[in-house]
Amino acid sequence: MTDTSQPGTSTDPPTPDDVLWNRIRAGDEQALGELFDRYADDVHAFAFRRTASWAIAEDVVQTTFVSTWQRLMRRDPGPLRGESARGWLLVVAGNECRNHFRAVQRLKALVQRVSAPADAPDPAADVARRLDDERRMSEVRRALAKLPAHERDTRSSWWSGPA
Asked: Would the pTM of this model clear 0.90, i.e. be above it?
């Protein structure tokens, strides 16, 4: 008898969340992958609605599942309450969204505290001035190189000033 099923398809019913949860608690990374495949889109949609950014929502999905794994490995929260891990994952995602916004606020406050005063000189002008100085110094050195040695020494001494 030949297997006619398509690769990647299964007729088996999906593993219940509580079974996956217990497998994750036992350290089964594949179970976490199954949970990710099942709920990553829901977590992403939830995070996108909270953040209005696809990129931030993707980061929230990642941190939600990483922190879920870390929490389950660090301390056992016990069996899953209810039949679905979706609610638990969305609570974690909501916390991750709040963490993101708090981090943004801290960064803004830090930038305001350490930002240059309004009357600070433009660093680009300083760079342009330095480049111009270097160009002029190269021209002077080329001109000095064309002078006889005794005149070059005299002019270099004059330019350098008293020792």
From this structure: no
